[in-house]
Every structure is written in structure tokens, then in C-alpha cells.
């Protein structure tokens, strides 16, 4: 777990590794999404802190999605999640009663698998993944569980970081030593530094990736918000031109949305800034959304 102050300091410290912030948005306040929805053709929803917290839908989220569909708005979920497959994400939304189709979900895991060959083709990846991950959606990619018993880490021709669930300082030390001894490409499927969960902020793959870069000089390739590949995939095939990214974080959702040329909507009552005044964070970072809503 990491306190928000530390996560925030770290996000600001790596700003030169993130896209540039656009001109400040107008920061208009509204009570809910439906109040401003008619100004847009569609929406890219972040998941955690916007549609759900953990396994629970945020109150009003299901009704909001239904109303948006009735108004003919396009809907995409663009989530930095790499520990589980898109099919698992779909099942989760269905359990929560959220009307979202599989082809409306773009996870950073999807973006990673779609682009990893461009980083290093035909490489055998040692994957840092969740315990039960069998890489069912990895198609033709060659990979093995780096944390399984049988394979030496030196067998990996590249490192693919999908989940921090089984990662810790000791393993990070070992990986730093391994990569310093023999540099290899590193790909990261979730650029988030932290994720808000029950009980605090958990450390996510992006956090370890930036530490790795500091200590090995290897520049990991990260897929997901705020980087452009995620937005390219999420926006492909959408009709219209007026889209907004809705999220609870400034350095991934809002910054990424701005860099992709979208309008941006910050949610303040759930997720990263829940229970905090967001104004000082917006002022310090200079990442200023177009709209601020307590909740969708
Ligand atoms: Mg979020």
C-alpha cells in the first residue's frame, strides 16, 4: 500500500515520461453526466472509480448507461487492467448489471497483446502475471509464467509485466539484477502507479516499471492510458467527432484524453481522489479537465 501523497509525488516526478498536458480545460461543474451528455457523440469510460468500485457498480451507473444508449451515444470502456482477460471483464460487468458489450471494452491488456510484437517480434516473454493467468487471450504470443517454478528467469527474452499481485521488493531487486546483467526489452500492460482498493492504494505495474527504468536505464514500453495506442483502439470505428474521456485520475485518464484530443471529465467522489478536494491536485499538476462531476 502507498499513501496518496507518495503516489502523487511519483506521478509528478515521472511527468517527462507521460504525454504533455493540453491547454487547461474550463473545469465546468455539473451534477451528473446526463446533464452534459448532449454535447457529445460518445464517451470513453474509465472503469474503476467511474463505473465500479471493486465488484460493486457505482450507484446510478447502470441507469446512466441505459439513458446514454437511448440518446444514441457511443460507449466504450477504456480500462488500465491487465491481470485478467477482456472476457473476464465482461463477466464482471454482467454480474454488476452494467449493460456493456465485449466489443465495447478495451483493456490495456488487449492493447498490449495487439502491439507487443511491434516492440520485439517473436520474443519469448517471461510474464509477471496473476496466479491464475493462463494467457488464454495471448493468441500466437510465446510466453511463460516468470513466477512459475520451472523456468529460470534467464530463459525470458523479454519481460512482460501484467500484474503486480505477486510482485514485491525482493522480486524487483532480482529482476533489476537480471536485467542489468543482460538487458532485455520490458513491456508493461498497466501504466497505473497505484490503484485505489478497499483499504488503500495498491502498487501497480507502472510503479515498478518506472523504478526499473531508474535502476537499469531500460525504457519499458507501456500500453494503456495515458499513452496513445489505447485511445487509438478505443476510438476506432466510432461515429462522430465529439468524444469525452471520463475518469478519476489526472495522470492517466485526463492527461491521456487530452493528448488524444478528447474532451475530459474528472469524477471526484469515487476512485483516486475519493474524500479529497481535487482542486489543489489539479492546480499543482496543471492537468485541468473540461468538466468536473462528483459521479456519473
Ligand atoms: Mg480509475
Query: How would you sum up the global shape?
Result: globular
Order of helices and strands: HEEEEHEHEHEEEHEEEHEHEHEHE
Radius of gyration: 19 Å
Number of separate helices: 9
CATH architecture annotation name of the largest domain: 3-Layer(aba) Sandwich
Tell me about the biggest sheet?
A: 7 strands, parallel
Q: Structural class, judged by helices and strands?
A: alpha/beta
Distance between the termini: 27 Å
Q: How many strands?
A: 16
Overall tally of domains: 2
Explain the overall architecture.
The protein has 2 domains: 4-109 and 225-293, Rossmann fold, CATH 3.40.50; 116-222, HAD superfamily/HAD-like (Rossmann fold). It is α/β, with parallel strands linked by helices. It is 31% helix and 20% strand. Helix 5 packs across helix 6 (205-216). The longest helix has 13 residues, at 169-181. It has helices at residues 4-13, 61-70, 86-95, 108-119, 169-181, 205-216, 228-235, 250-259, 279-285; strands at residues 28-29, 42-45, 52-53, 56-57, 74-79, 105-107, 124-128, 142-145, 158-161, 186-188, 194-197, 200-203, 221-222, 243-247, 263-267, 291-293. Strands 1-16-15-14-2-5-6 form a 7-stranded parallel sheet, with helices on both faces. A 5-stranded parallel sheet has the order 8-7-9-10-13, with helices on both faces. Residues 46, 48-49, 247-249, 271 line the site of magnesium ion.
Amino acid at each position: 500500500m502507498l499513501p496518496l501523497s507518495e503516489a502523487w509525488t511519483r506521478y509528478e516526478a515521472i511527468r517527462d515520461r507521460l504525454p504533455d498536458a493540453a491547454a487547461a480545460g474550463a473545469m465546468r461543474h455539473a451534477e451528473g453526466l446526463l446533464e452534459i451528455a448532449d454535447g457529445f457523440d460518445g464517451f470513453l469510460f474509465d472503469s474503476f472509480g467511474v463505473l465500479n468500485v471493486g465488484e460493486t457498480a457505482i450507484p446510478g451507473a447502470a441507469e446512466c448507461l441505459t439513458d446514454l444508449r437511448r440518446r444514441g451515444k457511443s460507449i466504450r470502456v477504456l480500462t488500465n487492467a491487465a491481470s485478467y482477460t477482456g472476457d473476464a471483464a465482461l463477466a464482471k460487468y454482467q454480474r454488476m448489471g452494467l449493460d456493456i458489450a465485449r466489443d465495447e471494452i478495451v483493456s490495456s491488456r488487449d492493447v498490449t497483446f495487439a502491439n507487443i510484437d511491434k516492440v520485439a517480434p517473436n520474443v519469448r516473454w517471461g510474464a509477471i502475471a496473476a496466479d491464475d493467468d493462463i494467457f488464454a487471450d495471448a493468441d500466437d504470443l510465446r510466453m511463460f509464467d516468470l513466477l512459475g517454478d520451472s523456468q529460470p528467469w534467464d530463459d525470458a527474452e523479454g519481460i512482460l509485466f501484467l500484474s503486480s499481485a505477486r510482485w514485491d521488493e525482493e522480486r524487483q531487486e532480482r529482476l533489476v539484477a537480471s536485467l542489468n546483467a543482460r538487458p532485455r526489452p520490458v513491456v508493461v500492460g498497466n501504466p497505473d502507479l497505484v490503484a485505489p482498493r478497499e483499504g488503500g492504494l495498491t502498487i501497480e505495474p507502472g510503479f515498478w516499471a518506472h523504478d526499473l527504468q531508474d535502476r537499469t536505464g531500460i525504457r519499458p514500453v507501456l500500453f494503456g492510458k495515458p499513452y496513445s495506442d489505447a485511445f487509438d483502439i478505443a476510438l476506432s470505428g466510432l461515429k462522430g467527432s465529439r468524444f469525452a474521456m471520463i475518469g478519476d485520475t489526472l495522470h492517466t485518464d485526463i492527461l491521456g484524453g487530452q493528448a488524444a484530443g478528447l474532451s475530459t471529465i474528472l469524477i471526484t467522489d469515487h476512485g483516486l481522489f475519493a474524500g479529497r478536494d481535487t482542486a489543489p491536485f489539479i492546480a499543482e499538476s496543471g492537468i485541468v479537465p473540461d468538466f468536473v462531476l462528483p459521479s456519473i
